[in-house]
Design a protein that fits this description.
single chain; mainly alpha; about 85% helix; membrane; transmembrane helix
């Protein structure tokens, strides 16, 4: 069974990280487009904060996996 080359995995990891940062940007833009400060706070509390925790966790996981991929070489 052939394994996936490390360069392909690295490329996919970098693309994932770029998408993750773009999703964070879209999330913050969505939060700032609320009509009132109260609505912005509710969006931050109910949507932005939990989603940011998940996205940053995935970003950290991707970086860790990429470092582990290249540390054995």
């Amino acid at each position: 069974m052939a394994s996936i080359p490390p360069f392909l995995l690295t490329f996919l990891g970098v693309i994932f990280c770029i998408g993750d940062v773009a999703a964070l940007g879209l999330l913050l833009t969505w939060q700032q487009r609320a009509a009132t400060p109260d609505a912005r706070f509710r969006r931050w509390l109910r949507g932005v904060l939990p989603a940011t925790v998940v996205l940053l966790g995935l970003l950290l996981l991707a970086f860790t996996q990429l470092m582990l991929l290249w540390s054995s070489k």
